[in-house]
Design goal:
about 70% helix; about 0% strand; 3 domains
């Protein structure tokens, strides 16, 4: 009697769910998708969430060709179920690419989450999207990955905020590959373009002069004064060695040394202050902490972050910035990233502390780099 009250299409899904073969799983996936697409406005939120959860569980066992065709079909559909679009955007890049590039249903929060937690291929697709918001662009800049940065700069419709431009311009002094795409951006702030004048090629100098209609003599004069002022200011604010340790100790005693301060110091390019602050909060000797941080790779950083309470959403950014500061390769494989994220998921703070201090005992006998 109860069976008679169930909708026929739902009865069909139940029958398909009982099959264990690949064809049955593919058919079940396609049937749920069709039902969700055609009737998603008629479902309650809880029903829609349940169906997307079933799809998420099925994804790994359904042929990629089916998922890819679905993504390509829905990428341009503004009426598609948003939950389904987010599911596809988080799939493997072969599936996700078209949705990441073209779907207007992905919110900034969806895109930023993917930037932080998925692969560089996902980041590249997002960097090429039309009309990127400043928040998403800033998240992409924080990855520090050169291919992503060059794709972002080559995207004329991307809205890049001033702070992100400042980071990129500073980096371009060492990274020549950033110079031309930066100078050719129409929305590059004039004061940052003039700052670049000191280290770009003659051809790029000409572009800066023509774009901002200023004579070489005036720009050199202004730049010399500005740079000299900045250099003296940097010397006043820059601290190193014992001074760093005194500052960290003072902040710690005042209760002002926090994970947020650790992240801020790294974002500002103060690698030594970052390391000293992190080591102080983790209660590990600074030299030993550096060995753990750089000898043990992604796992070492993940455990240390878990100890002081830094969320995994900041992990990739911290990893890349620390490696760039030490002139090491800033990229991780998908497997290395997944393993590090598993540490965040499985290890609580106490377990992380035990692991970190066990490593500290081991690393006290190891070379720093």
């Amino acid at each position: 009697m109860q069976t008679a009250e169930i909708r026929p299409d739902v009865q069909d899904l139940v029958a398909l769910a009982q099959r264990r073969d690949a064809a049955g799983r593919n058919e079940l996936f396609s049937s749920i998708v069709d039902l969700l697409i055609n009737d998603h406005r008629d479902f309650a939120d809880v029903e829609r969430t349940l169906m997307c959860d079933i799809l998420r569980r099925l994804t790994k066992s359904v042929e990629m060709s089916i998922r890819t065709q679905l993504a390509e079909r829905l990428a341009y559909d503004d009426e598609a179920p948003a939950d389904l679009i987010v599911l596809l955007a988080n799939d493997q890049i072969e599936v996700a690419r078209s949705v990441l590039l073209y779907s207007k249903l992905l919110r900034d929060s969806d895109l930023i989450n993917i930037v932080r937690h998925k692969t560089i291929q996902h980041q590249l697709s997002i960097a090429a999207r039309q009309n990127l918001s400043s928040k998403v662009s800033a998240a992409l800049v924080q990855t520090g990955t050169m291919p992503v940065l060059t794709v972002l700069l080559a995207n004329p419709s991307a809205n890049i905020p001033h702070d992100s431009y400042a980071q990129l311009v500073s980096r371009s002094e060492q990274e020549a590959a950033l110079r031309e795409p930066l100078v050719n951006r129409r929305d590059l702030p004039p004061e940052l373009a003039k700052r670049m004048y000191r280290w770009v090629s003659a051809a790029l100098k000409d572009i800066i002069l023509k774009t901002y209609m200023i004579s070489p003599d005036k720009i050199d004069e202004a730049l010399n004064a500005a740079v000299d002022g900045l250099a003296s200011e940097d010397r006043r604010e820059e601290i190193s060695g014992p001074a760093v340790r005194r500052l960290v100790d003072k902040l710690y005693e005042a209760g002002q040394l926090t994970p947020a301060y650790v992240i801020k110091s790294l974002n500002q390019g103060q690698a030594e202050l970052f390391e000293e602050s992190f080591a102080k909060l983790a209660k590990v000797n600074i030299e030993v902490f550096r060995k753990i941080l750089y000898n043990r790779g992604a796992d070492g950083l993940a455990v240390a972050c878990r100890v002081i309470g830094i969320d995994r959403s900041m992990f990739l950014t911290i990893y890349r910035l620390t490696r760039i500061a030490r002139r090491q390769a800033p990229s991780l494989t998908d497997a290395e990233t997944a393993h590090a994220f598993e540490i965040f998921r499985k290890m609580d703070q106490r377990q992380a502390e035990i692991t970190l201090h066990r490593w500290a005992a081991d690393e006290s006998k190891a070379p720093i780099f």
